[in-house]
């Protein structure tokens, strides 16, 4: 589902954020990406949804060479990938329903279909009773659930979560990770979670890729933070 071949990313400033990185992530895998600040984790993720383009090497997502996607096709390509962030990034003046429906309205989905799809994802994330609430009326964990619902409503092949529990307490963090696991299991979505949370990486033993100084330091299917 995701393949990097000798990928190097050098920013205009001369910073070498990734250095000759190669890796393979199969469809349906659940992967943690860990490593210190400045290691290159965000750069790796940005290459996947073409927020950035590799300086050299190749990035493939779902068999597509990301660099070769024409600019006008990038929005279509991005529908294959759902992304959630640490700070949720919900639209504050829109309701939960509208925040999620928004992702479908840009795709010309008929209204009846939109309602059905939004209801289905709200049920999946356990917020069917919050459709008419505004983001500020929800807890952080609930807001992150809405962000996840929005990220998966187009049925993406890949779900990327960049520090999804960074603003949440330990119990809520576990709930969010368990929700991501459920989406991985039920929808067979390939899930990547970038995290600094040692407890989570230790508890939910999954493939863990550690990036340091722009290189993959370790990559183990056993999981655990101290590898
Ligand atoms: P992480 O997500 O692991 O904290 P990043 O991928 O954000 O790491 O950053 C890797 C390195 O690249 C850092 O030195 C960072 O300062 C640098 N960097 C990230 N984005 C840019 C950018 N847009 N322009 C220049 N340097 C950048
Ligand atoms: P986050 O909190 O998500 O890690 P950052 O504050 O590290 O975000 O980065 C915010 C934005 O600035 C990102 O788009 C990142 O690529 C960019 N950035 C990070 N480091 C640098 C840098 N050294 N020079 C220019 N842009 C950078």
UniProtKB/TrEMBL annotation:
- Classify the protein's membrane topology as the record does: Peripheral membrane protein
> GO cellular-component terms in the record?
plasma membrane
What Gene Ontology molecular-function terms does this entry list? ATP binding; ATP hydrolysis activity; transmembrane transporter activity
Note one Pfam family from the annotation: ABC_tran
Question: Is-annotated flag, keyword Transmembrane helix?
Answer: no
Where in or outside the cell it occurs: the entry states: Cell membrane
Q: Which family does it belong to?
A: Belongs to the ABC transporter superfamily.
Protein name in UniProt: Cell division ATP-binding protein FtsE
- Organism of origin is Sharpea azabuensis
UniProt lists the gene as ftsE
């Amino acid at each position: 589902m995701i393949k990097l071949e000798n990928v190097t990313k050098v920013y205009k400033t001369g910073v070498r954020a990734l250095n000759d990185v190669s890796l393979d992530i199969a469809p349906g895998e659940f992967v943690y990406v860990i490593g210190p600040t400045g290691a290159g984790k965000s750069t790796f993720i940005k290459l996947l949804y073409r927020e950035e383009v590799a300086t050299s090497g190749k990035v493939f997502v779902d068999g597509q060479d990301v660099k070769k996607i024409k600019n006008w096709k990038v929005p279509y390509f991005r529908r294959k990938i759902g992304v959630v962030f640490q700070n949720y990034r919900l639209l504050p003046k829109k309701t939960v329903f509208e925040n999620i429906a928004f992702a479908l309205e840009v795709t010309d989905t008929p209204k009846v279909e939109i309602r059905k799809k939004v209801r289905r994802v709200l049920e999946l994330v356990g917020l069917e009773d919050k459709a008419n609430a505004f983001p500020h009326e929800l807890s952080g964990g609930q807001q992150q659930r809405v962000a996840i619902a929005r990220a998966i409503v187009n049925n993406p092949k890949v779900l990327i979560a960049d520090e999804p529990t960074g603003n949440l307490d330990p119990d809520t963090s576990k709930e969010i990770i368990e929700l991501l696991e459920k989406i991985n299991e039920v929808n067979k979505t390939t899930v990547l979670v970038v995290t600094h949370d040692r407890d989570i990486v230790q508890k939910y033993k999954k493939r863990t890729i550690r990036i340091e100084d722009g290189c993959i330091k370790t990559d183990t299917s056993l999981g655990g933070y101290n590898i």
